[in-house]
Amino acid sequence: MSRLLSRGDTDSPEGDAEALEVRLSGARPSAIRWKGSWHPIERIALSWQLDVNWWRARIYRDYYKVLADGMALVIYHDLLTGSWALQRVYD
């Protein structure tokens, strides 16, 4: 079971996800700050890039399905704004 933090999902990314602070190791996320605490990323299970709607409101993001402190999460890096966000938490 998962809890979606936005109205969309990674295939339809409209809506508001939860903003994150992210520490990087090279270009990859190594820890996230969520709910006031830092959570080290133990593993990146999957990564993919989304580039849609280039003809109107473009969405250009790198997505990561990660394991952090025993939690499975989907986070993304918005390549247009530089911001990071949490999109999904798997229970």
Secondary structure: elements and pairs:
Layout: E1 2-4, E2 18-25, E3 28-34, E4 37-52, E5 59-68, E6 71-78, E7 84-90
Antiparallel strand pairs: 1-7, 2-3, 2-7, 3-4, 4-5, 5-6, 6-7
Descriptive account of the structure:
This protein is mainly beta. The chain has one domain. It has a 6-stranded antiparallel β-barrel with strand order 2-3-4-5-6-7. Strand 6 and strand 7 form a beta hairpin. The radius of gyration is 13 Å and the shape is globular. About 10% of the residues have low confidence.
Strand order, sheet with most strands: 2-3-4-5-6-7
Sheet bearing the most strands, described?
Answer: 6 strands, antiparallel, barrel
N→C terminal distance: 5 Å
Count of separate structural domains: 1
How big is the Rg? 13 Å
Count the helices. How many?
0
Give the SSE order as H and E letters: EEEEEEE
The counted number of beta strands is 7
Q: Estimate the mean pLDDT confidence.
A: 88
Low-confidence stretches: 6-14
Shape: globular
Name the helicity range: under 10%
Structural class: mainly beta
Residue share in β-strands: over 45%
